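INFO  loader      accepted 1 record
INFO  loader      residues=164
INFO  predictor   begin
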Amino acid sequence: MPNNDSPVTPSEKSGDVWLGAVLVGLALVVFALSRSIKSLGLGDNFDPGSKAFPLGLAAILGVGGLVEIWHSHRASATTNPPKRDNRAKTAAILLAGLSVYVFMLPWLGFALSTLLMATAMMKWLGNTWPRALVAVVVLIGIVYALFVVGFKVPLPGGVLNLPF
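INFO  predictor   done
INFO  writer      dumping tokens
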């Protein structure tokens, strides 16, 4: 579990240039790969089209990466660099959790596997149980509204065949 007893410096809160660089790089990869999607425009008749999601995702990742780089640059000019105590361990555990989530998704369905794994990950990162549960339930609701209601794309129901 992450060590929450150590004091957090302003530079630890304000961002990490490496995270920003990875997000910008990932955005560029998504933009490049979305070029191979064969569609004309972004869609028609209120249909966002097959390119809308990857382009929107790439835009969000790119903006988020640039914000992280900007915050990191501002923080490095005014404070000492942050300590790198358990970040690699935490990142490895979260990556392993993501792998477990991908494995659980077809079996338990979207809602149940997301509820279990996202809540556990948020608790691991130091959130309280109520805060983690509320955030995950809101996340599930947003994804359900976006995909099932908005785009008419069913989410995996798993062996329980949950409707969401």
